[in-house]
Design brief:
The protein is an alpha+beta fold and about 425 residues long. It contains 14 helices and twelve strands. Helix 4 (about 205-220) runs antiparallel to helix 5. It is elongated and about 120 Å long.
């Protein structure tokens, strides 16, 4: 028995211009990211559909399966029933003796077979939708109908050859209600035909596109999921949930740099998301691991210079990146640009360090002032965009002074020495 689920946007989502917020469906409340209890709306009317788990019928016969619609909450209201319709070539189909009922009322699902129906197990969903009230409600249950062979009719050997799939029928609201109920109960595979039917009627239906991507992702079909997330983003380019979901799919495929770009884009849309920084950090770690495998170093140049990913200098750089720089939108934008630049040359430099001890020591001397300047960030509190910009610009100017201005002044002073000696003579 599958309990009724709350569908807060079924009745009117298809007239909206913006997608609804993606939040858990619940009975009374759900737990937020920080452990807080967040209330949610429930329909004033809830019902439950109950059918037997199994039923049996012979070829060229029919069976009446009892369908109980019971009241869970509120005053009884009308419930519209629908079921699966199968291809005529299979010779099996079903209908309700009464398609509109009110709890607590019984009706029957009639399943008719023919002599051409291959003996096998067939799943029939009994779907109920009540669209009255402020928050619509729905319920779904399933019965497996076993068709037994009858002498003179088609044999079970033909079943594998036919391979037909059920044709799903109904309005978009009904199909959406059923598919959402299936997804809420993690029946992702069963939801796909209903979502496909919605998209056949409305190819740009952003809600069905999102649900299809979500279901495919849950089934581990990441490449297919990405195509549907892309279609959602084509309609809503800045849709935070689609950005993170596509990033998650790319992450699962090992395409970490592509995922990181999307996570940064999502972070800019919603910097308050407590999971945004976690996604970025875990992806950066994967990129480090990947670069470590490919080039022998984690933070490539620093690891090659100091000999290990566990070296204090390497850990210090990671801590500055994770705990300071990417905690703000400006910092994450900087890291995106910096990573594109850094990884374009760092593998080559790291390889040269491993090949030449002299070059390695030269690099160590060269980056020591940089590490010293970055250590200043450990002694300040950065709580805003203005502070990260201020300290960041200060560190950049300090390093420009150390690496460019000071050497130029030194060279200028050295050039003056011969002239001073000449004057003294």
């Amino acid at each position: 028995m599958i309990l009724v689920s709350v569908l807060p946007y079924v009745s009117n989502v298809y007239g909206q211009t913006e997608p609804p917020p993606i939040t858990p469906k619940c009975w009374e409340s759900f737990t937020g990211p920080n452990g807080e209890l967040i209330p949610c709306d429930n329909p004033d009317f809830q019902f439950d559909i109950d059918v037997p788990v199994f039923s049996t019928v012979k070829q060229d016969d029919y069976v009446r399966i009892p369908v109980e619609v019971t009241l869970v909450k509120g005053e009884p209201k009308e419930v519209a029933l629908s079921t699966t319709t199968w291809q005529e070539s299979l010779g099996i189909y079903g209908w309700f003796e009464t398609s509109t009922v009110t709890p607590t009322q019984r009706t029957y699902l009639v399943v008719q077979t023919s002599c051409n129906t291959p003996p096998d197990n067939y799943q029939f969903y009994t779907n109920g939708v009540a669209t009255s009230g402020d928050v619509p409600a729905s319920s779904t249950d399933m019965v497996t109908v076993t068709v037994e062979a009858k002498p003179g009719c088609v044999s079970s050997q033909n079943n594998q050859q036919l391979g037909q799939q059920p044709i799903i029928s109904g309005s978009i609201d009904e199909l959406s209600s059923i598919s959402q109920d299936l997804i809420d109960n993690e029946n992702y595979q069963e939801a796909l035909p209903y979502l496909n039917q919605i998209l056949q009627q409305e190819p740009e239906n952003e809600f069905a596109l999102w649900d299809m991507g979500h279901a495919l992702y849950a089934l581990g079909r990441y490449e297919e999921a990405i195509t549907y997330f892309d279609r959602v983003l084509a309609i809503f380019p800045d849709y935070y949930i689609a950005l993170t979901s596509k990033g998650d799919a790319l992450y699962e495929l090992g395409r970490y740099e592509e995922a990181l770009t999307l996570y940064y884009d999502a972070f800019e849309q919603d910097p308050e998301d407590p999971f945004a920084q976690w996604r970025i950090e875990r992806t950066l770690e994967k990129i480090d691991e990947q670069n470590n495998y490919d080039s022998g170093g984690g933070c490539l140049i620093a690891t090659a210079t100091f000999g290990s990913e566990l070296a204090p200098q390497v850990q210090f750089l990671r801590e500055i990146r994770d705990n300071t720089v990417i905690t703000t939108a400006s910092g994450t934008s900087f890291m995106t640009a910096f990573n594109s630049f850094y990884y374009s040359f760092s593998p080559t430099v790291a390889d040269l360090e491993r090949q030449s001890p002299v070059f390695k020591e030269t690099v160590k001397v060269a980056i020591t002032p940089l590490l010293s300047s970055l250590s200043l960030l450990q002694y300040v509190d950065i709580d805003s965009e203005a502070e990260i910009l201020g300290y960041g610009i200060g560190i950049i100017l300090l390093n420009m002074g150390m690496y460019f201005v000071a050497p130029i002044m030194l060279v200028h002073k050295v050039k003056k020495i011969p002239k001073l000696l000449t004057r003294e003579k």
